[in-house]
Amino acid sequence: MPVMLLNSVEAAKELLEQRSAIYSHRPHLEMARLSGFDEAFVLQQYNNDKWRQERKIISQDLSSRSVSKYNAFLEQEARVLVRAVTNNPSELNQLVTERIGTILIRVFYGYYVNDSDDPFLTLIRASMNIFSQAAASGVWAVDSLPIFKYLPTWLPGTGSLITAQRWRNLVCKAVWAPYSWSKKAFKTASSLTPNTCSTTLENLGEAISSEQEHQLAWAAGTMTAGGLETGIIGTLNFFLAMLLHPEVQNKAQEEITAAIGRDRLPTIADKPKLPYVRSIITEVLRLNPPIPLGVAHALSQHDIYKDMHIPKGTIVVANIWHMLHDPSTFPNPTSFNPDRYDNLPSKMEEVTNIVFGFGRRTCPGKTLAENILFIIAATVLATCHIRPKVNEDGTDVVTAVRYSSGMFR
Ligand code: HEM
């Protein structure tokens, strides 16, 4: 299939937003589908019934108005994170993973993760790891030759089909185990509420069909997995930015002290009073977008753009990283500079309108993600100074910053 890379915001808006009716399919990733993700709405074709119903469940629960019901819980978890990190700063990565996982599993299923070996958290992480491998392009023979999937697995060279079957079993478990727990807990009123599964089960009542239940389980599973890696990356990049830019950290701390004082901790309702903290999060997402090439779209019918013929089926990739490093919009794009937004929401939106993707496939977890990152940043800045580790001779340990390659960065 031809691939079209969109480097400009103008082209992304024209094609993925204004012409979204034909630019919102996903590429057919056979290996990912065989590995169990055929039901996940991130891979569903645009506007099919499953995709619409699953997105509807999520947009009802996480709309900007209704997502605030999770605020108190997010505030509590940001404080738990601060306490854990101050006790054990060298375990930052693991502690952030545990906290983001706890938040998502609690929001979608009403289940509280108590330790890093929790079976639901482990399963969801494993399924995300599988997704990154199975959705990698150019790796699997079955992606370019779908007929390959019908070969018997005793034939030499078909090892990937056996791998897909193994992965499929694990992915199904990652979706159905937490959902089954949540459904049972809903019936006995023992889950933490509100949560997406119990709210939806309550709305649908006794008349829920097995198809609706399937959609709910997959909607919750897709969201939990979709939010995990991005939430971890955003939070770790925030800590890194504060470590590298103490002057920014000081300025944010001054903003917090001036706006809310030192008698209480920040809350999500304080967002309007803390534009510099919001600018920091925006700049973290701009400099290191968690999904630098977005999630590929696919074109559902032939099209013409600026005299170019674009064939049906073309894979359309939004180069989010490039757009967020365009020097004409973001001067000195490689420097970390939250002041570039002048504390103005309209300037920050130039980033958030890109980093969460485009058109009808835009990220359904956007508001939740923004709330999570904001409250973690505000709580950490209100209570801690993030400093590098110090050598025995009193000098800072400065380690090189390196990123691994993959779908997430
Ligand atoms: C800073 C954090 C995040 C960033 C930067 C981000 C970014 C993105 C991007 C670029 C896309 C692709 C949009 C497109 O196709 O044009 C996407 C899709 C998606 N995101 Fe996020 N995301 C974040 C957090 C989350 C969270 C917290 C969740 C869940 C709670 C989530 C769930 C999803 C799902 C399920 C999709 C697929 C939507 C579809 O195919 O219809 N994301 N996200």
From TrEMBL:
Heme binds at residue 363. The keyword Iron applies. It holds the Pfam family p450. One of its GO terms (molecular function) is oxidoreductase activity, acting on paired donors, with incorporation or reduction of molecular oxygen. Pathway: Secondary metabolite biosynthesis. It comes from the Eukaryota. This is Monooxygenase.
